[in-house]
Structure formats: structure tokens, C-alpha cells
Amino acid sequence: MIELKNICKSFGDNKVLDDISVTYEKGKTNLIIGASGSGKSVLTKCTVGLIEPDSGTVLYDGVDFTAMSLNDRKDIRKEIGMLFQGGALFDSMTVEENILFPLQMHSKMSAEEMRERANECLSRVNLVNVNDRYPDEISGGMQKRVGIARAIALKPKYLFCDEPNSGLDPATAIVIDNLIQEITIENNITTIVITHDMNSVMEIGDKVMFIYKGKKFWEGTKNNIFKTDVKELADLVFASDLMKQIRADQLGQ
Amino acid sequence: MSAFFEKTGEYFILIARAFQKPTKNSLIWKQVIKEADSLGIGSFGIITIISVFMGAVITLQTASNIDSALVPAYTVGYAARQSVILEFSPTIIALILAGKVGSNITSEIGTMRVTEQIDALEIMGINSASYLLVPKITAAMVINPFLVIWSMFIGIFGGYLIATFTSVISVEAFVYGIQFDFDFFSVTYALIKTVLFAFIITSIPGYFGYNVKGGALEVGRASTQGVVASSIVILIVNYLVTQVLLI
Questions:
Q1: Domains along chain A?
Q2: What ipTM was assigned to the predicted interfaces of this complex?
């Protein structure tokens, strides 16, 4: 479980996060939604310590992460897996080397055990025969899956996914969504997903937080999002005619 | 001016962080060998070409400027040797490498920054400054002295070719000149400079790459800034070291 308490962050005069408090629950996919520039990525970077918040605290299973020194944070970071929006795969390494990298850095496994674990992670994300390929030799969807494989290599307790579906075709997006949810439930981990994709909200939104102009505007689940009376949320989620129709059908029932 | 002090402070903080205990020593050493091959061996060809022509031109220019019966002919060989060992091999090669290796380092690390690869390292609990900078700095500080010694030999060999194939100086006089009044401290001085320059041409471009914000345009701009800054620092350090060691 990760708790954020009163997180504030400004860049110059621009207040990007304004007093955000939220609890990300274990064994659930916790979604952060909001328009571009609403502060989703900054909030996630504050959570993992890539950006320091101006005020507020981040607690990982009760441990105050914000008060820790850079060195002390290493232990918690070993338990964090992160899928970046662009994949952030090391382009000088092959797919297999990318997945082996965190294992080589932090595990005490033998070379053979590490290779086995890398193959296990690759098969978990339905990738075969790509071990020796470089990231620029595989498709965007495959890169995302390699990113997930690398993120879960050390069996993390906390999994962060920054827009895992961006730039993917709808079929691959569903595969990625399901994969993230399966991994979350299987390993009983705390998963945080930043997304723009409303299909993801409907599919895997165990817990959804809506951010608008740096403030938390709404919190709920995929089931009660249809009943929201928050105009800003409705404008984002039910922007298309199709989504409006689906909402009308849901409310009609 | 405040931006200058801010950047200087950031540079020293980054270097201090880079030289903290690495996450895993064995992987750092593996990277050092890789970087030694890429930064050092990869520069071997260009250093050979530059050095042979540099030695040849120094010999020709010295010979054309010392046109007096009062100055012995071997002075050309002596002056060429001293110029190559004291200044041209360590400093000019460092400036060439600041362009070649420096721009390579800034663009490599800068691209890693804008594609979030450095963030990925940090999230994994890895000291990214140490993992990215220390192997490059160490490899250059170890391999560059060998490159400069090679450059000295090839530079003097360039002068020898001039003596052999032109009539500006006899081979005997040139060979006598390059052996005349040889003080090994000249080489020591050149190698001290080389090690300092190696640190500069890897750490400063590394700093500029590490702190890139933006996209491809900013990576290109940072590469230029890295090369310009490291070239200026090389010239300043060259003056200071010469003042301290030779005067």
C-alpha cells in the first residue's frame, strides 16, 4: 500500500499539484486519470522520488519515503518496477540484457538462474524468440511488453505504469491492460497506472482517481464512474458520442 | 554570471555523486573495458593521422623559420620533439578528443536522459551518475596516456619522414636533434596533463548530457556546449599545469 498525504508541487509560479492525498491499495490496479498537463506524471514522479514534492509525505507500507536520504531510498526502489511511457529500454542492450540488468544489479542469482527468470518474464508477457533483438528492432507493443517484463523481473511490491497503452492499437492495448491486472492479482502487488485510455478505466479501474488542474477532483471505481456528477470528469471520460451513449445505456439500466 | 556558478556547482555535485560507492563493482568494471574500447581504441585511427601530419608540419615550419648558419641544423629535430611532446600531443589531441569523444558522450547520455533511460536506472535503485560517468572517466584516464605516447612517437615519425623525403634537414641532423638534451620529465609532464585532460573531456560533456532537458534539439545544443566548455577548461588547465610544473 502507498499513501500520499497533502502532496504539493510547483514549478516557478505554476502550481502543478495542489494538496493531493490518496491511498493506492494493494492487490488492486489504481488508475490516475486526467487531461494532458493535469499533473498525473508529476504526481507519479513525486511518488517514486524522481521529483521532490514541495510539501507532503509519501508512505510505502507506512515507511516515510520523502524523509529518506537518496541512499536509504535504494532499498525501497529495489521493490519498485516501472513501465515508462516510451518504454525507456536501454537501447545499447538486447531485450534479454534489458531484463537481466536489474537482476545482475540486485539479485544474488547465478547466471543460469537469471537467464531462466528473464525467459520466465518474457513468456509472462507473451514474447518468444526476441531475446537477442535490440529495442529498435521490435514493435512499440513489444517494447511495452519488454518494459513490463523488465519491471517485474525482481518481483516488485509496487508497479508503476505510465500510459502503458499510448501509441498502441486497441487489441494490443487490451492485452497490456489484462496483463497488468493479472500480474497485480497474481503477485498481490500495489499497481498504479496513469492512463488517458477510457477503455482501460472501464476494464481495469479497480480504483480510479481523477486529477484536474493539479487537484484531486474525484475518486471511485470503474463501476460508479458512470454516475459521477463531476462535470470535469464527465467531460473527459464521456467526451465521445460513443462513450456518451454507453453512459446513457448504463444509467438507463 | 550566476548561471555559471550554478552550473559549476551542479557539475561538482554530480561528480561527487558519481564517485560514491557504485551499486555493483563488477558491472562497473565491465563497463570500463567497454568504454576503453569505444573511447580509446576507437580514437586510434584519427590520432595516428593527426599526429603524423602534425609532426611533419612542425618539422617543416621549424626548418623554414630557422634559416641561420649560427643555429645548428639539429635544432629542427630538437624543436620538433619538444613541441610534439610538451604541447602538441597532449593538448592538441585532448582538444581533438574533446570534440570527438565529448560530443559522443553528451549525445549518448543526453539521449538516455530524454528517453527516460536515466530515470529507469534511478527507479531500479542504481546510482545513474556512477553507472554512466565513472566507466567513461576511468577508461579515458587509463587509455589516453597510451594514445598520447603513441601520438608522440607518430608525431616524431612524421618529422622523420620530412627529413627522409625532403631536403629541409638531413636525416642524421634530425635524428641527432630528437635525442639531444632529452629530459624524461617532459614526458611525465605531458602524461600528467593527459590524465587531467581525460577527466575533463569525459566529465564535462557527461555533465551536459546528464542535465539535458527537452528533446533532440536540446541534446544537440548540449553537445556543442559540452565540447566548447571542455575545450576552454582544457586550455585553462593547460596554462595552470604548465605554470606549476615547468616554471
A1: 1-79+158-166+189-253 (3.40.50.300)
A2: 0.85
